Amino acid sequence: MTDQNLGTPVTLPTRRDPACPFDPPEELTRLRDSQPLTRLAFPDGHVGWLVTGYDAARRVLADPRFSVRMDLKHSPLPRRNVLAGSGDKPAPGMFVVMDDPDHRRFRRLLTGQFTVQRMRRLEPRIVQITADHLDAMAKAGPPVDLVQAFALPIPSLVICELLGVPYEDHAFFQEQTAVAVDLEASVEQATVAAGRLTDYFADLVRHKRSSPTDDLLGGLITDSDLTDEELTTIGLALLIAGHETTANMLALGVFALLRHPGQLDAYRADTSLTDSAVEELLRYLTIIHRGSPSRAALADVELDGQLIRAGETVIIGLPAVNRDPARFADPDVLRLGREGARHHLAFGHGVHQCLGQQLARIEMRIGYRMLFERFPALRLAVPAAEISMREASLAYGVRRLPVTWEQA
Amino acid sequence: MRVITDQDRCVAAGQCVLSAPDVFDQREQDGVVMLRDPTPHPDLHDAVRDAVALCPAAAIRAQEGR
């Protein structure tokens, strides 16, 4: 046990260099290279830990002595995540902030719906939805905002169909979700948005309870003993997780490819890069970027020669973790086809690892491939420096991505 | 190599099926790991080692040299 690194606690680095929108905050990278496990000061006065090294991050996330419970964790964010519940209490059924065995009971009701095989059966439908949106883009003509024309509506429509949420309500839930996850919105604004989403979903669940439907929510209503409150929370969590994340990866991934023309040429020329490109973009871009994932120590745990005491909160600095040179050679280089890219922690690690990761992979695989096949000369319609980034959002990405192409 | 899986620990992330689909499958109802081949051909050993490393729940072991 050593106290050599226990200097003044740092605050969570969040400022990125505007000239390098794909790179983690420079200070986060510096910390990883000098003190991959360091004391972190939280806005509420708590002093916990920041992990920026790959091995330590994996160990924390896999260790049941570290809890995900909100009532035990301190938040490094300017405001709490209102979607997880109010105050210290998780919303009923909000299994992402429960430890096992509670977490496991809920997760096991859902895992059968997100298997590799089950997601592959959705492929033809995802191809169709993607083709429809590319047709609409071509018809509208350049320039278009790729977020609104492609990146947001495709995963939104896919998760709506999977869950059984009427897509015609998408403007409502996309808008409310955007407020609920915006860290610059006040806690009041975010709470109102989360409340509207919850009311909407509660109505939907009641409706499906009286007239059952053949979709994921309908199946849960028929086959599980979940309460309406639990179904509401779980349905809403899946809807938000299902479109916010993939939408940001799609648009940010396209931006990154357009800014790495050599890699994009290689991708276009070689269809064997289709799968590995997705993994490398997940690693390189790591959109879960601000104060998440996090855990609270349930016991004293020794980690890399430091003692993490029971009750202390540990934040994983994921963007720096996925660029750890001890795990990935030349980590700051985007290299599609990189061997071992799949070992990134972009989907997390441990029992909470992303439930929808196989769906996300398929949507990105189809999305990037079909977009660049249909629009081989796609390019930014504005200088790259003018692309506004979602720095203050739970998931990183671009606000808009104006693109253009030569019409045939 | 002998592959051992722990269905109680499994969280059904599907990482093993992506790594080595000839060795691992997922149960239809809950996605829990099913072993298709407990003694895979040596050509598949690297893929199995990848699955062991990638499993988020440490639910797979590979005993080497069997």
Automatic annotation (TrEMBL), chain A:
UniProt keyword annotations, A-Z: Heme, Iron, Metal-binding, Monooxygenase, Oxidoreductase
CDD domains for the chain: CYP105-like (cd11030)
SUPFAM superfamilies assigned: Cytochrome P450
GO MF term (any one): oxidoreductase activity, acting on paired donors, with incorporation or reduction of molecular oxygen
Domain of life of the organism encoding this protein: Bacteria
Region (Disordered): 1-20
PANTHER family the record matches: CYTOCHROME P450 YJIB-RELATED, P450, PUTATIVE (EUROFUNG)-RELATED
Similarity remark: Belongs to the cytochrome P450 family.
Name of the protein in question: Cytochrome P450
Organism encoding this protein: Nonomuraea dietziae
Automatic annotation (TrEMBL), chain B:
Keywords: 3Fe-4S, Electron transport, Iron, Iron-sulfur, Metal-binding, Transport
Organism: Nonomuraea dietziae
Annotated 4Fe-4S ferredoxin-type domain residues: 1-29
Task performed by this protein: Ferredoxins are iron-sulfur proteins that transfer electrons in a wide variety of metabolic reactions.
Cofactors, names only: [3Fe-4S] cluster
Single GO MF annotation: electron transfer activity
Pfam families per the UniProt record, alphabetical: Fer4_13
Full protein name: Ferredoxin
Listed SUPFAM superfamilies: 4Fe-4S ferredoxins
